[in-house]
Amino acid sequence: MRIRAIAALTLLPLLAALLGGCTVEPERDEPLRLMVPTPAGGGYDVTARTVALALEESGLTAETEVFNLNGSAGTTALTRLVHESGNDKLLMQMGLGLVGSALTTDAGRPVTDATPLARLIEEPEAVVVPQGSPYRTLDDLVSAWHGEPGLRAGVGSHVGGPDHQALMLIAETVGLSPATVSFGRYDGGGELLAALLSRKVDFALTGSAEYRHAIAAGQLRVLAVTGPARVPGISAPTLREAGHDLEVVNWRGLLAPPDLTDRQRADLLTLLDRLRATPQWRRALRSNGWTDAYLSGDAFARFLTAENERVDTLLTRLGLTL
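Given the sequence above, the corresponding structure tokens read:
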């Protein structure tokens, strides 16, 4: 009798729902949301969607929603993130570019106000020209740059972002004043590629992986890459191999809102640790030409603080901080 009574009590809520014309659905966990602070199609967007796909395909999450919230060079999304205090279901894709944005726009809050989770990847910049360009080597370009004040560069990031930083640092290294450099800023890789191919700009600074297909198709030629080593699949020297003592590397990572509990933060770090170990993520690194630069938790927090200070010093020297 006792067992029958328990079973009857268990069925009562279900019967009541059915008789009332309602259906009972199991509770669903809120999906993880990954916010991209830039328009669709750019480096942040590609990275975020790659993270989401690897999380789902590896079974680490049932669903990961990616959405774009662009505005004010990425700082609109940063403000949203900081105001989502304690929300462990919202992450933001970020990187070196957002560090620069927060310092060159009226963001109100620095990136260090969020919860640093992990640096995921590194990617060098590339100096690229259209295939029909008269500049065959970096030396050719530098010589023309010195002799032709009208030579125009293109960058696919905002002022203070990785493309712009690389352009200004290269100009300094080859003996040009950054203040005299003529450049056009384009909103993402698609617009910059169009500007290159239509000869609105003479050369561009961009992520080395962003135009791999255009390079492979013969539309673009890479004159140099800015990292410590050559990039597999790209036939171009490093800046140092080309005789210029400079190294510039872009990176991307993830932030969470502030004021997470210790348990929330630990769970997110465990999720990212597990993601890094999956074959899906390793395959994504290879296919996108990204370098694994994983750094998580307190180590990433220290790195982010140091990067904020380094970029602040650089942009102050260039006269670009507020």
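The CA atoms of residues 239 and 290 lie 19 Å apart. Try to locate this feature in the token string yourself.
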